[in-house]
């Protein structure tokens, strides 16, 4: 025949037309027009023609003659051979090494498992050592080319299940043959009955072309042998020899790694156990993910009776796994652990472990099987595709979703198979090279721009898998409760309750009631809720308290009714619904605030709406609200409503993770300060109306404690001092009376209970405490401090700062107290001892009875008070000579102390980290519980809630307590040295001479 021209080859799909042309010339009469057409139709025509030349050169004699006859024959065998050569350079290498095996390709009829086991055993024979290993590898690939030839000439999507089954059966046959080799090599092998249990894809009969083969070894003594220990030792040798027979590298290469890491205790555990030994482990020690792994367990080689006994003992425990505490969280932890092993550079290319990959499908199906298989034996299947079908038939997954999930899983597995088949290498990564993508696309039947087309197919499939993951769990729940279209699953209410419980809902019946209330009827609201709820239920389930989230969501939705903008925001505004689900399911505090002001959910609609307002901005809003109300009570109500709105804004931004601690504390301080300023304005206006004239005095509010330090938390009271200064010519008596009336009205208006949250304005730090007047003149403060002031009052004044009222009066008050809190020459020995004794007494007396001194956030050992008092002692001793210490905060002063050698940099960093952690945990406790939480909780639920708000994965929340105690131990050691024990090391001064 005349060889095709270069142009004809290019048009036919050959990329390296020059080399392929030369190859066709070498083939001579074999390169008929029909053969060239078949070569051009293969996934990689250039590779196919080169492989055919190599095979023709390797074959000789009768093999070559019959090969030529095959290529001249128009039968299916010719097409199978050419398709395989164009699909796999790895298997082409095998055919070149063993040319006679082309007959397996030409036949390509898949055989049942029993026949495969017999064929492999016959090919290996009775050999031992290296000859046996080589024979096993040749036998394996002889069967493998048959499977691959069937695969590449079939519809790959339809053929996937039987190809996976055939590959798993072949692996089992090789394990059986390897065990046979081991028995011939290990002395006393007859004393041990060893069974090989296939796990993972081998156990599920859905194996890849190139994969580790997961197994567990189970052994029993031979009948009549009472030496269990000796038999187990021999069984261990048999297992090692079996692994060696499969995994060792010889002249014929290797089969695959035999992975035994799924055995009890993993790689640290014994390689072989008896059935009773396995049962004892799983009954007492096994984690949830180990039962999940056992779902795939299947006897594949060795003693069938031992294998059956093992499965009889294990499988009942598998189907009770969903009743274990934290079942869903354990499964999620396993999924997260799998994802952690994926390098960041590969995550976007991962077919198996990446987002929308095979693991998403497999874990979803397995979780549903474990949840519902406890009561429905029809779900107890090993293979993923069979599991999807059984879930659909049982009504646990909708028909449309099941068919779509089946399609996506098949596509991902076919992509994985074809990528591995190319070079017979273990990989789960999508290639990026167009020269590799092109044959991959052609193998899947994509003829127009196959490289781009296969990438689009993969990305679309991964996106669909992620969408289906959400629907797979939650759409049937909604269907069971709301009775949607006929195409949706018919999950029973009992099954729905089981699934809610497994997914972390503590009150499944309550959850069903909420869904019925939200989705009932034919209104537009109900229709939108039916669209939203499947994914909302999923998001709630990812948080610490799904029931709390769903309940709050129902209450808010009931309050807002059919409000158009609310439903539109949840449906259309990207992450609004997801953020709302997180906030409601992780914070009673935020949920209660929002329930009291449902329209505030608008804060979820945009990131800009969650930026905290500064004090002046809040004041502008408050003044506008006050101006709309002549009645003082209505004006105060408007102030409290505005404060609620701003607290919601800050809490939502905090939970969303967009605020650092300093920004959060400043925002809460600004809210408190603006609220007090506005309430002061209303109180002054009210008193002026009562007296019929302007106020006779100026009033300033001095923030103390965390308010003065601009470190306000969610649970912080507003500690303040009130100071007034009569106008020139005003009588002191009436001025004092008016100032007292204003202050009392302010405190009553903000502290009174009502629909909006109260703000306790606490003036107990005033001179003479509760016994002294609530408000004093500036001159009275000056006289008191000059004559009577105690050391603790000077210390308390370190955090004093004007926050409301007359600005000039506030500044004059600061000038008055500066010499007291920043004394020239520092404080004397007696004052230092007094401060230390007072601190020690607080630690001994103020922690509630029965409380743990290690875990109290404020007063505990290494807690916030330890750090604050250490900073304040340094201020009292050195602030006069170090102006940078004249600041009302705590955290920022640690760096100042380090700069001036009052602390080492490591000490400052440790104290700062401890103070920040305690503060954040205290704030998180309020968000979680809706009320103050002063100590590290002992309840696992509370720990999970706080850990989640701090950004810890729920699956690792148990580590929060240990982390806190470790951090506070480090801080306390510094406090003992710098605050309490400094006399032993540095003399009287708690700190070295500053720089």
Please give a structural write-up.
Its EC number is 2.7.7.42. Keywords: ATP-binding, Ligase, Magnesium, Multifunctional enzyme, Nucleotide-binding, Nucleotidyltransferase, Transferase. One of its GO terms (molecular function) is ATP binding. This is Glutamate-ammonia-ligase adenylyltransferase. This protein has a domain at 822-995: Nucleotidyltransferases  domain 2 (Four Helix Bundle (Hemerythrin (Met), subunit A), Up-down Bundle), CATH 1.20.120.330. Mean pLDDT is 90; it is low at 483-489 and 982-989. The strands form two sheets. Strands 1, 2, 3, 4 and 5 form a five-stranded mixed β-sheet that branches. Strands 6, 7, 8, 9 and 10 form a five-stranded mixed β-sheet that branches. It has 44 helices and ten strands. It is mainly α and 995 residues long.
